[in-house]
Amino acid sequence: MENCSPFWACSPSSHLAQLDDLETKAFKIIGIPHDEAVYEPLTSPSPTGRWSLCLLPPPFLVLHPLPSPCSALSTPKYLQDACGPPGSPILEKLMKSRKPLLTSTHLFLFFPPVEPPSTLSSISFLPPGLQDICSPPSQIPPPPIQSHDLFYKMLHNSTFCLVPRGRRLGSFRFLEALQAACIPVLLSNGWELPFSEVIDWRKAIVQGEERLLLQIPSLVRSFDNDQILSIRQQTQMLWETYFSSVDKIVTTTFEIIQDRIYKHVSRNQIMWNVAPGGLHILPQFSTHLLDFPFYYALLGAKPAEWFTALIYVTSPLISQSQPIMKLIVALAKSKYCSQIVVLWNCDKPVSPKIKWPDTTVPFVVINAESKTISSRFMPLDVIQTDSVLSLDEDIVLSTNEVDFAFTVWQNFPERIVGYPARSHFWDANKARWGYTSKWTNDYSMVLTGAAFYHRYYHYFYTHYLPESLKSVVDQLDNCEDILMNFLVSAVIKLPPIKVTQKKQYKETMMQQGPKASRWADPDHFAQRQSCINSFSAWFAGMPLRHSQMRLDPVLFKDQVSILRKKYHDIERP
């Protein structure tokens, strides 16, 4: 195409945009009579040898087989940092499958009028440094085969996607781009984007000017790698939170209406636009950002230096030497402990003969309102600290172990941080999820028998989960800790954190009292297997994430004097 300029100056009709959905009956070209914008098959060059280019929305995409006319992309710095210097095998493999900077789902070739209009969709690469998107007639290939598979493959392999007007003002291509983490470049002036009342779309899209199409290449080249990564992350957060299913779209609509009605308990812009998103923020709990575990880093704050110990008791106390007595003493010695709460969930009332240990911190015994296992996660007014240390009555922890776990939680306030870890796996033979307590190199759950988490999760567990799930837990008198792990992982999309302890915690350990039969019963373990599959069905997938990270104190197990170690008691047998 010798006559094609770097600015598509092939002919007066080469700078036009189709504003309606591409259908033959609605083939309306803006700025030129319909009979002057006729499509000719690519295999038949026009008599004048001139080719015109227009941006039009096709019904779907195909991969354009032409290579980019510009030079090879320079190696991005973030790839060099991650994969090594130029020439490394990993880097070469990545660069061979380089991504186009800009994907146009709407590139069409037009010729002078010779026969009735027809349509064909194709695609174009606009990498950095591109000056000319026209090619000589000899390089124009035959019409490609339209393929949805190629379309979605190309979409997911692109950085920017052009989104022009559809049949009306909006375009379904917008949602497709969001789903594929392809940054939408909007070419639709005046389009009110979905949920714009609460969503700040400036952080997730590039707003183009449909009357200045020639500025699009320079516009997308102005973004550096860090900006591109940030925008793509935001597109994924918005897609997963608000648009990935009809249920989420409808729920978001109702929540926005609720915020309009109850303005005094409505979510602010940060809650809607920062992970985990507005649907996971219950404004009835609070409207202040620092009352939630997700915004400390954003606001440059840290959780308070206090925690509340919540001990869940299900069996009557028959001896002063039971583990709970030693546990209370160890908790009271912690400099971070604000108060100790014993949640009495036993059929027998608290005996007045019980002599609780003397403590220097407030100590209170509360009778559970409902004698169900879910009551351990009921939001209690007595708990005023951000951090909750959930404990079983038979757990054995030292003061050093408690203090170390709390300092770790302060750095990860949105996660569950604790000691007893478990894992899930996919059983291919049975085609179902499995549960294991074996000591392996990874884990996906930290049981709430000895774990720190934010008090908001009590409120979220009680008011967000359906009664059907909680009734399953209550009927089995089991799996409440698994359900809490499912819930937290589904919200933050991150695994829990295991910390070091000096004593191992096994579900196969024999316990004293009435609880012994439950832990020794093989049905107890089978129930937990069944719970995982029931929970994954409700969450429409497996939200649990595996992790291989375990956090130890500084100098843990190092061959130095134990006096130099802050948490030296953890290493003692």
TrEMBL record:
<dbReference type="InterPro" id="IPR004263">
    <property type="entry name" value="Exostosin"/>
</dbReference>
<feature type="domain" description="Exostosin GT47">
    <location>
        <begin position="149"/>
        <end position="222"/>
    </location>
</feature>
<dbReference type="InterPro" id="IPR015338">
    <property type="entry name" value="GT64_dom"/>
</dbReference>
<keyword id="KW-0328">Glycosyltransferase</keyword>
<dbReference type="Pfam" id="PF03016">
    <property type="entry name" value="Exostosin_GT47"/>
</dbReference>
<protein>
    <recommendedName>
        <fullName>N-acetylglucosaminyl-proteoglycan 4-beta-glucuronosyltransferase</fullName>
        <ecNumber>2.4.1.225</ecNumber>
    </recommendedName>
</protein>
<keyword id="KW-0325">Glycoprotein</keyword>
<dbReference type="GO" id="GO:0001503">
    <property type="term" value="P:ossification"/>
</dbReference>
<feature type="domain" description="Glycosyl transferase 64">
    <location>
        <begin position="307"/>
        <end position="556"/>
    </location>
</feature>
<comment type="similarity">
    <text>Belongs to the glycosyltransferase 47 family.</text>
</comment>
<keyword id="KW-1133">Transmembrane helix</keyword>
<dbReference type="GO" id="GO:0050509">
    <property type="term" value="F:N-acetylglucosaminyl-proteoglycan 4-beta-glucuronosyltransferase activity"/>
</dbReference>
<keyword id="KW-0256">Endoplasmic reticulum</keyword>
<dbReference type="GO" id="GO:0015012">
    <property type="term" value="P:heparan sulfate proteoglycan biosynthetic process"/>
</dbReference>
<comment type="pathway">
    <text>Protein modification; protein glycosylation.</text>
</comment>
<dbReference type="GO" id="GO:0005789">
    <property type="term" value="C:endoplasmic reticulum membrane"/>
</dbReference>
<dbReference type="InterPro" id="IPR040911">
    <property type="entry name" value="Exostosin_GT47"/>
</dbReference>
<dbReference type="GO" id="GO:0050508">
    <property type="term" value="F:glucuronosyl-N-acetylglucosaminyl-proteoglycan 4-alpha-N-acetylglucosaminyltransferase activity"/>
</dbReference>
<keyword id="KW-0812">Transmembrane</keyword>
<keyword id="KW-0479">Metal-binding</keyword>
<dbReference type="GO" id="GO:0046872">
    <property type="term" value="F:metal ion binding"/>
</dbReference>
<keyword id="KW-0472">Membrane</keyword>
<dbReference type="InterPro" id="IPR029044">
    <property type="entry name" value="Nucleotide-diphossugar_trans"/>
</dbReference>
<dbReference type="GO" id="GO:0005794">
    <property type="term" value="C:Golgi apparatus"/>
</dbReference>
<keyword id="KW-0464">Manganese</keyword>
<keyword id="KW-0735">Signal-anchor</keyword>
<keyword id="KW-0808">Transferase</keyword>
<keyword id="KW-1015">Disulfide bond</keyword>
<dbReference type="Pfam" id="PF09258">
    <property type="entry name" value="Glyco_transf_64"/>
</dbReference>
